Amino acid sequence: MKINPTALTLNQLLGSANEKFVIPSYQRRYSWREQQLFDLIDDINILEGADTHLLGSIVCLTGDHVAGVNSLELVDGQQRLTTISILLECLRARFATDDRTEHVQELDRLLTARPFEGPVIPKIALDTMDGEEFSQHAKATSEGDTHFLNLRLQEAFANARNWISQQETQDLVAFKYRLLNQAFVVRLDVGAAKDAFKLFETINNRGLRLSPTDLIKNFVLGNAARFGSDHLDAAKGNWSKLMNHLDRVDSDAFFRYFLIARLATRLTKSQVVYQFQTYFMNAVSEAEALPDRHWYSYEPDEEDDEGSSEIEPQDELTAKTPSGDSDNISFGEFMSGLVGAAKAYGELVNQKTGDVRIDRHLRNLKMIKSTQSYGFLMHLRTAGTKKNTFIEVLKLTESFILRRHVCRERSMTRKVCLPSSAK
Q1: Cα gap 418→135, rounded to integer Å
Q2: DSSP letter, residue 374
Q3: Please, which residues bridge with residue 112 across strands?
Q4: What distance lies between CA 102 and its chain's CA centroid?
Q5: Fewest beta carbons within 10 Å, which of 10, 138, 159, 288?
Q6: What is the Cα–Cα distance from 188 to 177, expressed in whole angstroms?
């Protein structure tokens, strides 16, 4: 693995006229909260004299150098760089209002790349579900009545604008200088995709814990890169579809229920990543040639390290999927199945299957907190269960779950709860 690390100020990082940072479509949506935004602002504001602040590292997949503007795919650091872009966009708008042309021009230079021919393009480009909304926020000084899907992104722009509106112009000039010249980023350039995803995993093995979805995404794309560039391109596209289907849905829960449905076993949150990796290595035919495949084997834990799970073995009706080598499927088939399951899961959770009767029963299940049924229902949907049969299953599931809540008994328990007068 060849890594080229460079410590750069934001002025240096964004100063190149022939580079742009692309946040690819397979990355998750912007998710920083108000606290994280103001922590960043405070870190810059408290700098004194020639003090510096380390913003952290970013991992860039560089590819081959080409004439014109080179696109650097951001494998790690997208949340941080997006937040910086939000601050700079809001500062530029304020300086334009104050008629501080020199500062507007400086920020224009840092926020845009200029090809030899053609219009200017954003220096930090979001090729994600947030891309269009980010552009709308950056152009507007007020959201008005526009409905935005990513409330975190909307709040970040609103909070940044609100803070900036309360500052004196000269204070903002000083803040801009410290942000651009005294805040450093360690840029790690990697030429091969498989190395970039491996580096991401190594960096994030310490410190703040990544979500299961982040770790699974990196595992899938990293192995896709090992299978070949065509597999990687297809995997990126499939992952983008998957995240679209899981928009406004707990993606960590999806992977848990997906595995429960495939493996027919009890599964705690802490087991999801390893069990997914194991399932992947034993199900995907291309993985047979990987030298580390033997690291992954099905070994059920005797102890539950997170206490009792909300799903007991008898609670989840699932279908066992054979994991032997004779039943291996191609990587493309694996990803298609994963995307199909995500689509079914998203429709179930959001009650948007397109069928009025099914959606009505799904709303009932949501009201009685029937989350433990989603893995089973997702399996039925992806298996092509007929509509009338599926509706009957929904009715029975409603009755089972409601009885469980009332009687405090497990769903598969045969005991019937009747009032004494009816016995």
Answers
A1: 60
A2: H
A3: 122
A4: 38
A5: 288
A6: 24
Phi/psi at 332 (nearest 5 deg)?
-65, -40
Instruction: Identify the CA nearest to 319 among candidates 394, 272, 264, 381.
Output: 264
d(CA 379, CA 254) in angstroms, rounded, equals 12
Residue 62: closest CA among 180, 183, 195: 195
Closest C-alpha among 109, 93, 150, 77 to residue 11 = 109
Mean pLDDT of the chain: 82
Closest-CA residue to 341 (of 269, 228, 249): 249
Q: What is the pLDDT of residues 301-346, one digit of tens each?
A: 444 444 333 434 333 333 344 344 446 899 999 999 999 999 999 9
Distance (Å, whole) CA 272 – CA 216: 9
Query: What distance in Å separates the CA atoms of residue 57 and residue 402, rounded to the nearest whole number?
Result: 49
- ∠ CA 264-267-269, nearest 5°, is 150
The 10 Å Cβ neighbour count of residue 58 is 22
Q: How many other CB atoms sit within 10 Å of the CB of residue 35?
A: 8
Could you tell me where the DSSP H helices lie in 121-271? 131-139, 151-165, 169-181, 193-203, 212-227, 229-245, 251-263
Distance between CA atoms of 329 and 341, rounded to whole angstroms?
16
**Residues found in the chain:** 423
How far apart are alpha carbons 278 and 76 in whole angstroms?
Answer: 24
C-alpha to C-alpha distance for 342 and 345, rounded to whole angstroms: 5
The phi, psi pair for 123, rounded to 5°, reads: -70, -35
pTM, two decimals, is: 0.62
Residue with tokens 């966009």: 89
Whole-angstrom distance, CA of residue 279 vs CA of residue 293: 11
pLDDT tens, residue by residue, 104-115: 999 999 998 877
Two tokens, residue 265: 């076993």
| Amino acid occupying residue 294 | H
